Amino acid sequence: MNIKSLLLGSAAALIAVSGARAADAVTVAEPEPAEYVKICDVYGSGYFYIPGTETCLRIGGYVRYDIGFGDVGSYDGATNEDHEDGSRNHTYYKNARFSLKTWTGQETELGTLKTYTETRFDFGNDQGDFGTAPNPAHNQAVNLKHAWIQLGGLRIGKTDTAFESFIDYAGNVLNDTLVPYGDFNTNAIQYYFDAGNGFSAVVSLEEGSGVKGTIDSYVPHVVGGVKYTQGWGAISGVIAYDSNYEEVAGKLRLDVNVSDAVSLFVMAGYGTDDNLSDPTWAIPGRGRGIYKQWGGNWAVWGGGTYKFNEKTSFNAQVSYDEWKNLGIAANIAYDIVPGFTVTTEVDYLHAGRFDEFGAASPAPALNWTGADKKNSVGGFVRFQRSF
């Protein structure tokens, strides 16, 4: 064997060994099975299972753009200061909002475990003109509207007071508080009871909110309610104890489904006010607490909805209280496409005790709402995409 043959044979052997080692080093991992999101239809449409868990999640919300005109909301006019000469002009009130909502649900040995959150982000004008820079447009504080946990019938967290939410709000108008029917925000411990056959009840221990509404001792505000619901409508009532002022307020409500197109409601409220003091003018006996927000002892609200067709509805509300405050609101809501609604509303407010408060209060010419007019007209155009 000559040297040339020996070299060629050695090179071939090295190539073969190197190729074998390279082949042995390459391993192809088997693909892991894809884990697709699975639909969860136990709690309604839009839920899906969070991968790797038994928890169902739904994500939703809306994007909204409001354009207010006239005396915005009929009682809180949008004015501005002229940037050249300082004079006061009327202008639009505008607000853009993004609301993000989440729902979760899971079955446990103690019942259904639920959560709900809603967080709101706003850019818009400050309402009102009370001696400060009027109505600047800017990013406003993030608003945590709801954040609660519920296991079975027990709910804890941030939500609207049961004085409003249990018997429902005052109609489908945008501005349903021309005559206020109670405060909203509170931390709460609530228990909901469903007896079946349309009967339900709630007991709520609440902290309240605001300077005058937040509890000032270890005694909570207390709200209780009962409801009877059938296909024709519902009868419901709530009663609330204001622990700060030791006052009581209550509301009764009747809802009637006249037909598939027409639904009506009427709600009456009564509250004591011997110890209340108005949060603005501190006039004893004339004030409003966290629950009795209306003027005087009694108030009524009524209205309804008429559906012209699947896309268009007409909504109206009339409200009145013992102080002779009269509010009227009406709108037409039109669904351009599913999930995108345009609503145009007109509001009117007559401030019944404007003359008395204008003369007697430390802030003359302001009525019970903070408006500077006895009769105010305004409204909104709202564009809202819900998802």
TrEMBL record:
<keyword id="KW-0813">Transport</keyword>
<keyword id="KW-0998">Cell outer membrane</keyword>
<dbReference type="Pfam" id="PF02530">
    <property type="entry name" value="Porin_2"/>
</dbReference>
<keyword id="KW-0406">Ion transport</keyword>
<comment type="function">
    <text>Forms passive diffusion pores that allow small molecular weight hydrophilic materials across the outer membrane.</text>
</comment>
<feature type="signal peptide">
    <location>
        <begin position="1"/>
        <end position="22"/>
    </location>
</feature>
<keyword id="KW-0732">Signal</keyword>
<keyword id="KW-1134">Transmembrane beta strand</keyword>
<keyword id="KW-0472">Membrane</keyword>
<keyword id="KW-0626">Porin</keyword>
<protein>
    <recommendedName>
        <fullName>Porin</fullName>
    </recommendedName>
</protein>
<keyword id="KW-0812">Transmembrane</keyword>
<comment type="similarity">
    <text>Belongs to the alphaproteobacteria porin family.</text>
</comment>
<dbReference type="InterPro" id="IPR003684">
    <property type="entry name" value="Porin_alphabac"/>
</dbReference>
